[in-house]
Amino acid sequence: MTAVRSIEQRIEKAEKFRVAVPETERPNGIPNSYKEHIRIQFELMAMAFETDSTRLSTFMLAHDGSNRSFPELDIHSGHHELSHHRLNKQHLEKIAQIDLFYMEQFAVFLNRLKNTREGEGSVLDHSMIVYGSGISDGNSHNHKDLPVLLAGGGNGSLNPGRIIEAKEGTPMTNLYLSLLDRMGVKSERIGDSTGRLETV
């Protein structure tokens, strides 16, 4: 009984320090609009960061084999099918439209974090947000030269506004290892890492 009461007291103590959750409308099921669905997911992440409910989140916009069409963009062919473009100009244009669509949703998320004050800066100033893909060219299933965007200030540990070209053959996990250092998590290796991406 003492152990049970001890847990109850810890819960009561934790409840006293609960951060107020901002008022927001709850969605009624999954929206018909893919754009709205993505924005709700990003909004949930932003609120979780804002309320300090969590400081770590993963969001996969679509898996690598997704053959989703984009009727909102007037694209009725599947994404995966279009990614095997065989240099077809129309397919490349549609892939570019889809990429732009995803980047626009990501930009809304970043602006939300940028406009949310936290201490001496914003939530974005205190975050490290990695956005990217596991394939650089779907036509050839190329897993090299991945386009990756790293947003945020990392609480002053990142120097944003630059383009960095990693040395050929640099594993993505080198970036992750460098980010772990900035979070105070010391690790010598993650997966296939060969060191840290010191230029970040």
Molecular structure report:
The protein has 200 residues and is mainly α. It has 5 helices and 4 strands, in the order H-H-H-H-E-E-E-E-H. Strands 1-2 form a two-stranded antiparallel ribbon. The longest helix has 26 residues, at 89-114. The N and C termini lie far apart (52 Å). The model has no long low-confidence stretch (mean pLDDT 88).
Offer a concise description of the structure:
This protein has 200 residues and is mainly alpha-helical. The protein has five helices and four strands, in the order ααααββββα. The mean pLDDT is 88.
**Largest sheet at a glance?**
2 strands, antiparallel
- Order of neighbouring strands in the sheet with most strands: 1-2
3D shape: globular
The tally of strands reads: 4
Structural class: mainly alpha
Beta-strand portion reads: 5-15%
